[in-house]
Design goal:
By secondary structure, the protein is of the alpha/beta class. The chain has helices spanning 2-10, 29-42, 66-70, 86-98, 111-129, 147-161, 210-219, 224-227, 229-242, 254-261, 285-307, 316-333, 343-356; strands at residues 47-53, 74-79, 102-105, 134-140, 184-189, 193-198. It has a six-stranded mixed beta sheet, with helices on both faces. The protein is elongated, with a radius of gyration of 22 Å. It starts with a helix and ends in a 20-residue tail after the last helix.
């Protein structure tokens, strides 16, 4: 990863983390108010479910809240495990276990997965269940880690267990970070009464570490417009290249690639935004075929450029040169007109959508720490 860090610090870093330069400072007014409310309610909460992105087990932690969370009963829920590399996930759960932190990997959209989380929560509450008539469980996390999706799934399970309770409006789920702006509570159990409190996603006021900021931006925890799609896509390509990920796509069928190159003349323009979770319309068969073909073309473009690369990935200049070649190849693979003034931005947006929806395969951005006290 030396080449990535070199490029981030000397290349991307020259422009600062965000488009205006310097460290990111994206802290809307509602986040400041929410942080105060979260700190207040943490004092009376019996257990905290800290939701993190399974692709960013360390970087998606809100460092400002960690001192307050460390003294609470806590379960770390690594959400979006379906988008994370399963070959590495067990190392992360082992890491948290070794630090005596309860951790479970989940998929907030899976009922069975959320049930396992609730079982762990109930187990953790047993020691206080006898002396407290009412227990509060607080759900916290940075934007876009899937808190609202988790809350909705918990509510569905609670409603099936206890049909007679007040109806709760579903938490708003969207692709933009920070859409949940209120702290809402609802009952999930009787005898004792257990309430779950949902909270807005809040980031620290400033993220001075460029690489951590880019990871959060890549995962969608920061609005793309704050950082810039091209910069985020550059970082993604740098990570993929230095980890040799495209070389693992050797399973691509060369004959199929040739077929694809002759197939796109009459292909309709499917909107990749329909893959995002706030879209309810499911793609039909032709849409699915288009996406599969596009993914194959993208993988092929990255595989070819990296396999033919003769430079040193540890040198930022060589890595930047490779990424430039890949942008050109991706523009052709995505059938974006060569003279399009926004070609690079369009390439970046499509590439980011494919990554965020898991179409480029499962991935974990954080490195498994070797030391007992890592810094993300």
């Amino acid at each position: 990863m030396g080449g990535v860090r070199s490029m981030v610090k000397k290349g991307l870093g020259e422009m600062g983390f965000n488009k205006g330069g310097g460290a990111i400072n994206w802290f809307p007014g509602h986040m400041a108010a929410a942080t105060r409310a979260i700190r207040h309610r943490l004092k009376v909460s019996d257990l905290v479910v800290e939701v993190r992105d399974a692709r960013l087990p360390l970087s998606s932690a809100n460092e400002d809240l960690q001192p307050s969370l460390s003294g609470k009963r806590r379960v770390i829920a690594l959400n979006k495990k379906d988008l994370a590399n399963p070959n590495i996930m067990h190392k992360w759960t082992h890491y948290f276990d070794s630090r005596k932190q309860d951790c479970i990997s989940i998929n907030a959209h899976s009922r069975s997965s959320v049930k396992k989380l609730l079982e762990l929560v109930e187990l953790k509450l047993r020691e206080v269940i006898s002396r407290e008539p009412t227990l509060l469980v607080m759900v916290v996390g940075v934007p876009n880690v899937g808190k609202s999706a988790l809350i909705n799934s918990i509510h569905q399970i609670a409603t099936s267990r206890f049909p007679v309770q007040e109806k709760m409006k579903r938490a708003t789920v969207g692709p933009l970070p920070g859409v949940t702006q209120d702290i809402a509570g609802f009952k999930i159990a009787h005898q004792p009464s257990i309430y779950v409190l949902d909270t807005p996603g809040v980031l620290v006021p400033s993220i001075p570490d460029i690489e951590t900021g880019l990871k959060l931006a890549l995962a969608g925890s920061v609005k793309d417009s704050v950082v810039g799609e091209e910069r985020i896509a550059q970082y993604l390509l740098a990570v993929l290249n230095t980890r040799s990920t495209p070389l693992h796509w050797r399973h691509l069928n060369n004959r199929r690639i040739e077929e694809l190159r002759n197939e796109y003349e009459d292909k309709h323009d499917y909107n990749l935004k329909d893959l995002l979770p706030n879209k309810r319309k499911l793609p039909n068969r032709s849409d699915v075929k288009y996406i599969e073909d596009l993914v194959t073309e993208v993988q092929c473009a990255l595989h070819v450029t990296l396999s033919e690369f003769n430079g040193n990935l540890e040198e930022e200049n060589d890595l930047e040169s490779l990424i430039e070649q890949q942008f050109e190849k991706l523009q052709k693979a995505m059938k974006i007109p060569h003279k399009a003034s926004e070609a690079r931005t369009m390439v970046s947006k499509k590439l980011l959508t494919l990554f965020r929806t898991g179409k480029l395969g499962p991935f974990i951005l954080d490195d498994v720490p070797d030391s007992p006290n890592p810094v993300s």
